[in-house]
Structures are given as structure tokens and as C-alpha cells.
């Protein structure tokens, strides 16, 4: 394989196909992609989706994410003539589902099935239920008690959709217990000390939304955050000003993890994301230069920086430009930790520059243990190319979406009088072991917000 051919392959390689390559479960990249092509799922919806905004948000989120790895097709039960209530483009719900990669049609035998609303769950041997209420979202086994679902903040519905996609992936891979367990998180109380299904985990009625944000990094995490933000019930989107900063271009693999990027998109990430957000009514400003030590915040810039970059140097100097509030998240990169999330907020007890000190280069990856890497070597890929592949992250869009929801949740908590968490640690493989450390640093700065009428459900 020539260098140009290998670069094209790497740019287009689905980041979840790399999981099988790294685990040695695929003999070559083609076999890894073929496994994704064999993945298929079904979503069964109840009558609530015709008139409930949270149910529609959960559905669109689930379709958007699942279609990026279940390449064999994501079918959705008949939606009739339901109008689109969710803040996305189009007039009909079915058209929005299809634009995001779903296929309206009946379930096929033995597909993992996610159920939204009061559908007939007894027909599905491999089914589970999405559920949400207030600030909480997740999944429960088919036939189990659900949350009320009548009122939920938009990020809770997004969270349920993301965790539903994670469960479908686990079922497709044959993980023990997948499809038969309750898994969820409270955005208000992500510490896990209270059961997410308990009313004690819920927060107050939503009364305000942020309207001036700086988003650094428009890949996996940045786009997930913006999807969750875009689903929120803004009264006047033209007043919401978003500064978008990135220097990267879209590659064919971007769509496998970044949920505002459609397959086939091209160009700079900033412009592609801005186009999507402006079609939804938001105002955007683009910054296409590095976030380096020369960068400084101006007085009229947003007070809140949302950081989703996979760059230790940028994280090291996060507090340098002078943003009063910073929410940062990172996710794992390898086949063993890609479902791990760690979130930080600043100011906090520790400085960003202390958390991310310059470190020596990582040791060279071990390329001998995987049959897929050996096969590529036999096909003429040199050590440099194999190292590039080994250092490419395994990525799952459901992981980034959970992280994006938690980042937005920290901003919403600040707007509703609750201190942010200094650190949140969780792994989607073991959600019950999540932990959160409250920040002890008081922040008096008004971050800029738009008040809502009513609860914002």
C-alpha cells in the first residue's frame, strides 16, 4: 500500500472499526469495517413522539448516533404524519429521522431494539426502554418502571438517546447483561450518590439558558456539546452568540464520531458547524487560529469557554487567556479506555497548568500483537504509517455525547445557583462507579443567559 493510499484509508477509517483492529478481533481493516456494516438496530416509538418534545429529542439523538456505527441500517417504526417539534430543520419528524440516517420501516428479526414511549415492548426479545424526567436520563429493561417522561430538560432527553446508543452497541457486541440493565445519570447530581431514578437526583425547573459561549474544538466533543445546546428550548435563538474555534478540516472519518457532521461533508470544521447552527437560528463567529500562549480574551468575548480539544498543550494554558469560567472534558483513546470521560471546570482548587504539565513523548505503540497490524505490514505499510494508525484514537459518538451533555449540565447548574463540579470521572462500562468532586471556588461572574418562560421541558 502506497503512502497516499494509506493516508486516504486512515482519513476514512471509522473510529469504532479501529476497536476491533486494536483488540485483534479483525484480521484487517476491511474485516473491521465489514463488522460495522453487519450491525443493524431498530427503534420502536410510542404515540408520545407525536406531541412530546423530549421524546422527539431522544429519538433524533438516538438515530443520529446509532447510524454512525450500525452501518447495516437503523430502522424506526412508523411515525405517521407527526410534525417536527424538536429544534431541527424540517417540518416532519420522519424527514428529520431520515436526514439523520434512519430508515422508516418495521423491525427485522433479532435486531437490538430501543423503545421510546409507550410502545408494545412485549414483541421484542432484544429490547430495552429509554426513559427521562427532569434532569435525569437513561435506559431501563423492557417492562420495567420508567421515569415520568412528561417533563424533562432537553439535555436529559439527549442523554437518554446517547446511553441508548451505547446500549445498542453493547448488545451488538454481545456484552454480558446488555439490554437487561438500568443505566443512567442525573445531570444535576452526576456524583452518583443518589440513584438516578430517584426524585432526590432531580434538579429545579429550568429557567435560563446560556446565550454567549466560546467553543474550542469542533470535533467529537465540541459537536456533541453543540448538539445538546441546539436541542434546548431557546425563545430567541438570534440572541445566542457562539464563538467557534478550530483549525482542522473535515476528513471522511469525522462523521463517525462528530454528530453535527454528515457523511460526505468537506471543508473546515468551523464553517461546516457554523452553517448547521445558523440554519437553526444561532449567530456564530469563527476563529481559525490555534489556541496558543499568544491568545487573549477580550472584554466583550464570552465569559464561558467550552473546551473539547485533545491537546495537552492547549489544556495546559486554558486559564491563560482569562475566561472567567471554563468547562473542559476529555475522553479515552484506546480500545480499553475509550468509554471513559473526565470533566474539569475552572477556576478550581488546582490550576489547569498543574493538571497538564508538559510530559515526555509517549512510548512507541506495540504493533506486534494485533493480526490486523501484521497484515498491514505485509501489505507494505511502513513503521511510520503503522504508528500513525496505532496513535489514532478509538472513538464512539455516544461517549462524546454523554460528555457534551455533562459539560452543558455544568453551565446550567451555574445558571441555576449551584456550584459546578471541579472534576467528574465516569466510564460508560461502569456507570455506578462514577464520581464528582464539587468545586470550592466561588464564581461571581454572570456568564450571560437568556431567561425562559415556564419550565423549559
Q: What characteristic shape results from the CA principal axes?
A: globular
Please bin the fraction of helical residues.
25-40%
Q: How many separate helices? A: 13
How would you name the CATH homologous superfamily of the largest domain?
NAD(P)-binding Rossmann-like Domain
The CATH topology of the largest domain? Rossmann fold
Strand content: 15-25%
Name the average pLDDT: 93
Low-pLDDT sequence parts:
none
Q: Tally the structural domains.
A: 2
Amino- and carboxy-terminal Cα gap: 53 Å
Tell me how many strands there are.
Answer: 17
Look at the helices and sheets and give the structural class.
alpha/beta
CATH architecture descriptor name of the largest domain: 3-Layer(aba) Sandwich
Strand order across the largest sheet? 11-10-9-12-13-14-15-16
Describe the fold and architecture.
With 457 residues, the chain is α/β, with parallel strands linked by helices. Helices cover 29% and strands 18% of the residues. It has 2 domains: 38-201, 3-Layer(bba) Sandwich (FAD/NAD(P)-binding domain), CATH 3.50.50; 208-451, NAD(P)-binding Rossmann-like Domain (Rossmann fold). It has an 8-stranded mixed sheet, covered by helices on one side. Strands 3-2-1-4-5-6-7 form a 7-stranded mixed sheet. The longest helix has 19 residues, at 154-172. The relative contact order is 0.15. The mean pLDDT is 93.
Amino acid at each position: 500500500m502506497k503512502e497516499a493510499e494509506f493516508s486516504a484509508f486512515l482519513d476514512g477509517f471509522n473510529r469504532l472499526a479501529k476497536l476491533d483492529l486494536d483488540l485483534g478481533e479483525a484480521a484487517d481493516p476491511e474485516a473491521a469495517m465489514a463488522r460495522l456494516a453487519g450491525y443493524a438496530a431498530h427503534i420502536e416509538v410510542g404515540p408520545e413522539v407525536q406531541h412530546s418534545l423530549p421524546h422527539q429529542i431522544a429519538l433524533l439523538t438516538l438515530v443520529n448516533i446509532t447510524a454512525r456505527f450500525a452501518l447495516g441500517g437503523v430502522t424506526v417504526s412508523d411515525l405517521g404524519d407527526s410534525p417536527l417539534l424538536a429544534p431541527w430543520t424540517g417540518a416532519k419528524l420522519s424527514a428529520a429521522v431520515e436526514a439523520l440516517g434512519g430508515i422508516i420501516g418495521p423491525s427485522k428479526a433479532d435486531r437490538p431494539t430501543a423503545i421510546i414511549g409507550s410502545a408494545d415492548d412485549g414483541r421484542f426479545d432484544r429490547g430495552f426502554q429509554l426513559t427521562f424526567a427532569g434532569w435525569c436520563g437513561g435506559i431501563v429493561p423492557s417492562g420495567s418502571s420508567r421515569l415520568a417522561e412528561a417533563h424533562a430538560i432537553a439535555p436529559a432527553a439527549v442523554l437518554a438517546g446517547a446511553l441508548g446508543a451505547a446500549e445498542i452497541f453493547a448488545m451488538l457486541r454481545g456484552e454480558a447483561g446488555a439490554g437487561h440493565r438500568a443505566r443512567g445519570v442525573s445531570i444535576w447530581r452526576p456524583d452518583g450518590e443518589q440513584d438516578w431514578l430517584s426524585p432526590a437526583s432531580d434538579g429545579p425547573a429550568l429557567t435560563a439558558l446560556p446565550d454567549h459561549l466560546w467553543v474550542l474544538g469542533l470535533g467529537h466533543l465540541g459537536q456533541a456539546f453543540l448538539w445538546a445546546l441546539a436541542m434546548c428550548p431557546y425563545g430567541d435563538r438570534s440572541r445566542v452568540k457562539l464563538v467557534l474555534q478550530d483549525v482542522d478540516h473535515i476528513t471522511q472519518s469525522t462523521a463517525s464520531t462528530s454528530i453535527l457532521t454528515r457523511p460526505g461533508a468537506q471543508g473546515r470544521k468551523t464553517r461546516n458547524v457554523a452553517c448547521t447552527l445558523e440554519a437553526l437560528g444561532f449567530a456564530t463567529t469563527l476563529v481559525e487560529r490555534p489556541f496558543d500562549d499568544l491568545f487573549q480574551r477580550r472584554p466583550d468575548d464570552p465569559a464561558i469557554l467550552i473546551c473539547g480539544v485533545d491537546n495537552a498543550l492547549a489544556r495546559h494554558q486554558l486559564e491563560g487567556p482569562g475566561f472567567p469560567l471554563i468547562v473542559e472534558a476529555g475522553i479515552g483513546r484506546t480500545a480499553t479506555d475509550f468509554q471513559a470521560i473526565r470533566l474539569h471546570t475552572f477556576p478550581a482548587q488546582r490550576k489547569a497548568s498543574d493538571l497538564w504539565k508538559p510530559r515526555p513523548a509517549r512510548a512507541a505503540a506495540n504493533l506486534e500483537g494485533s493480526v490486523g497490524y501484521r497484515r498491514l505490514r505485509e501489505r507494505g505499510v511502513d513503521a511510520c504509517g503503522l504508528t500513525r494508525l496505532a496513535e489514532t484514537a478509538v472513538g464512539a459518538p455516544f461517549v462524546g455525547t454523554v460528555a457534551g451533555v455533562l459539560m452543558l449540565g455544568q453551565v446550567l447548574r451555574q445558571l441555576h445557583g449551584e456550584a459546578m463540579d471541579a472534576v467528574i470521572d465516569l466510564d460508560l462500562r461502569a456507570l455506578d462507579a462514577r464520581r464528582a468532586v464539587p468545586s470550592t471556588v466561588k464564581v461571581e461572574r454572570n456568564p450571560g443567559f437568556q431567561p425562559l418562560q415556564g419550565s423549559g421541558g
